[in-house]
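Entry 14. Ran structure prediction on the chain below.
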Amino acid sequence: MAHVRTRLALLGSAAALTAGAVVPAQFTGAQPAAAADREWVALGDSYTAGVIPAAGDIFEIPRDGCERTDRSYPQVIDRDLGGLFDLTNVSCGAATIENVTDRAQQPIGRNLPPFSQDPDYPFPAVPPQSEAVSAGTDLITVGVGGNTLGFAEILVKCMELGQASGAVGTPCKDDLAAGIPARLSKVGKEYDRMLSVLNERAPKAKILTIGYPAIVPKDTSKCRSNDLTQFGSITKGDLDWLRQDVLEPLNKAIEKSTGTQKAASFVDLDESSQNYSVCDTGKRVEGFITAPDQLSFVHPNAQGHRNAADHVESAMLNAIS
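Output, structure tokens:
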């Protein structure tokens, strides 16, 4: 975190970076003013919200079903940066790009039958996340796109087909590859529209788009067949396909859309999380389960969110310097 302390010194901040500290400060040039009003809105899906127990505890009571956790990267950054930003976190598990832009969402909590049932389900609908953005917003972070692509659905299908094939070959690629370009095109078009809406709602805001971390290793021989703490029965051939033809192009589609907006910058998490994938020692993304009774369904753990926080923090500080 030395880079964060250096940047804060350059900004003239005297705020103590302690967990839970809220020390308002506003910057005019390099000089802090007495009161802060840098408004930050965090938007996104489960890779932003946290969702799984390995990403911390749900801190909102009563629950709204979005499953924001206290070790997700927006909350980590909020503690790290103290009074530099006033955070509004409306990220939500299972959110699509349209749920960010203009479609209300019915949160699912942890209700994923037949895998798990949530005693508080169903939850009331939450408004489109963009409604938290206004003309006074200074900074927006947004991490979304995987649910529009249908990544969870693809994973389940790959596991089913891998099991039927005896965990050999590329049955998922054979079945789904033809439809992936259309899915990626949909992501690109909806992302473009989302960024335009965010720019309209917050014309002075800097927008940081957050990519997805490395999930599948480049060396899939690290992955154990039929291990649910990794990818279960998904074949190694299909894992290579998922990395090369689904996940890497998803990040490229997000980065391409970001490049069309002058006020937007892309934050890459893939490079820094290589060698920390689901199949690596010290992984930052969990597999289908973390423990026999704990569903994680291929989501970042607290270490993954810590890595995301480091990179997003740096981009945030660059955006306001």
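The chain has ten helices and nine strands. Will compare against last week's run tomorrow.
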